[in-house]
């Protein structure tokens, strides 16, 4: 059975985004990108909520082809453009991805129980706070790749709000970076 792995950046006080949706508090660098690749490299599919999809679809299809593309932009662009993409939305009828195949629109997160049973490698859920919360609460997330960033935002949108069930986890791996970020990989206990 495929696993759904969550990849998220959070502040010290548990926020994924500031009060106005800002994410400029994440000290993103090649070390942080390498930690993210630990999650994505084992997956052949990605899940986005509608808002995150709109942001990603506007950037990644051609990001690796840009003259100023970083190594991360190049490698992630290749990966995400080949990956099967699931977009969680009740309003979208279709979800194009540049010149590549369209994404699969999923209206009900419970559909992921069946999608996990399909043949393939694991599936990564990136960003998409509402989708992440719903999938965590529904018990669909199997592993967590979290980066704890050295910032206290004091407001915004927390990752674990609206999660109503206790989930026991076990630390599988952790790393500390020179930026002060602590990256943790948790699996279900």
Tally of separate helices: 6
The low-confidence parts are none
Tell me the CATH architecture. Answer: 3-Layer(aba) Sandwich
Q: Calculate the mean pLDDT score and round it.
A: 95
Share of β-strand residues: 25-35%
Computed structural class = alpha/beta
The description of the largest β-sheet is: 8 strands, mixed
The largest beta-sheet arranges its strands as 5-4-3-6-1-7-10-9
What is the total number of structural domains?
A: 1
Please give the radius of gyration in angstroms: 16 Å
Shape: globular
SSE pattern: EEHEHHHEEHEHEEEE
- Helical residue percent band: 25-40%
- Any idea what the CATH superfamily is called? Dihydrofolate Reductase, subunit A
Highest CATH level, the class = Alpha Beta
Distance between the amino and carboxyl termini: 17 Å
The total of beta strands comes to 10
According to CATH, the fold-level topology is Dihydrofolate Reductase, subunit A
């Amino acid at each position: 059975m495929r696993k759904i792995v969550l990849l998220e950046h959070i502040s010290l006080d548990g926020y994924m985004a500031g009060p106005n949706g800002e994410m400029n508090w994440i000290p993103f660098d090649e070390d942080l990108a390498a930690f993210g690749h630990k999650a994505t490299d084992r997956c052949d599919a990605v899940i986005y909520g509608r808002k995150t999809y709109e942001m990603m679809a506007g950037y990644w299809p051609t990001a690796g082809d840009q003259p100023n593309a970083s190594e991360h932009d190049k490698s992630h662009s290749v990966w995400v453009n080949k990956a099967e993409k699931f977009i969680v939305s009740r309003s979208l009828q279709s979800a194009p991805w540049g010149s590549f195949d369209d994404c699969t629109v999923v209206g009900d997160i419970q559909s992921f129980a069946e999608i996990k049973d399909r043949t393939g490698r694991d599936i990564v859920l990136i960003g998409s706070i509402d989708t992440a919360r719903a999938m965590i609460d529904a018990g669909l997330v199997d592993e967590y790749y979290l980066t704890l960033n050295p910032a206290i935002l004091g407001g915004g949108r927390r990752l674990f709000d609206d999660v109503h069930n206790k989930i026991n986890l076990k630390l599988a791996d952790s790393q500390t970076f020179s930026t002060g970020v602590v990256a943790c990989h948790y699996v279900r206990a």
